[in-house]
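Input sequence (391 aa), recorded before submission:
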Amino acid sequence: MAIQPALGTKDLNPQEVQINQFLTSTLADLYQQWGYEEVSPPNIDTLQTLMADGGISDKDIVKLIADQPLGLRPEMTASIARAATTRLAKKHRPLRLWASGTVYKSKVDSDGKFNVEEKLQSGVELIGIPSVTAEVELLYLLLECLNRLGINQKGQPTLLIGHKSLFNLIIRDIPNEYKSSHQKILTNFDLISIENSKLEQNVKKILLKALRLRGNPSIVINEIEALYGKNELLNQLKRLFAVIEPIASKHGVNIQLDPTYLSQFDLYTGIIFQLICKNKYNPKVIARGGRYDELISIFGDSETNESGAGFSISIDSIRELDNISSMRTDVQKKILIAYSKNRTYEDAILRQSYFHNKGLIAMVELEAINSKAEGLELIKKRGFDQLEWLE
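Predicted structure, token format:
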């Protein structure tokens, strides 16, 4: 019986690896153009860091057997936030940081079997800017990432945006004993549970109206103002969308504001967003992010009241999109050097050295072959572009 990879993981073939490298390097170039510097958070960290003061459940973390509580990172934000307040504490703000690498999430399938979900991510963190300009820059950069990767309108990309304070505004009239249960009801869009709840009728009525509010940001904000009145949060959101909507429209990205949207990780204290693209079979979330000011205060001096925001892009999800998986990233020609029985391997490697000095990809066929025709068949089988035949 063949040994299979661990549940939740998979072996990538050369083309998949090549696409991953193309995607990560393309994003890295763009991050650096925007002034972001690369950091490398550890794959293994303490559970105290990885759980982010309860923002991430320990059930989501792959734990390791060690003398202290350790685990594999389910995301990179918490570890980078800790580094920002320790090793990078004296570095001038704002910090613009980027990182790429593998993240691991613990999952239990329908049969009760434990497995590890392994994914490649790339993302940025912007630390030290408390104003809405941080969100503007991040969303602008995310849209530029989409454009740079060539994800076109065929994927019908949608940027879904929520806000923790907006969610708190909606649940403000719910009694404290019901707030926890109704948070799940609202995020699950469970109209029936709201109608059957023990809340007062006027509170139910407003909640049902708020739950149906999603879509065009300007329309949603106006409806929220009608229900809850004007406030500074809504003014900030208006400013954000005034900048982001024209950019999104230029790139063919639809923006939806959903006041009841919350992230799977409870890290965020402000704006929360995810970018979704349609695939042949199902929609894929290709990026997530938001503002996480409280996370910074967990690791650093609370008196500094530092702020942070960022996003992560799922390289695996992008690679599996219809218009990405078929792209040819190896634009450089690959040369196969083959030689007859009248020549030697030493002759071939001298020719290979010539090509390598020109920066070209060249590989030597290790054994002599019978004819040039046989060599031409080999380049077809092995995916090479050119035959260098030594007679």
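Checked by second reader. Residues 14-166+253-325 form a domain with the BirA Bifunctional Protein; domain 2 fold (CATH 3.30.930.10).
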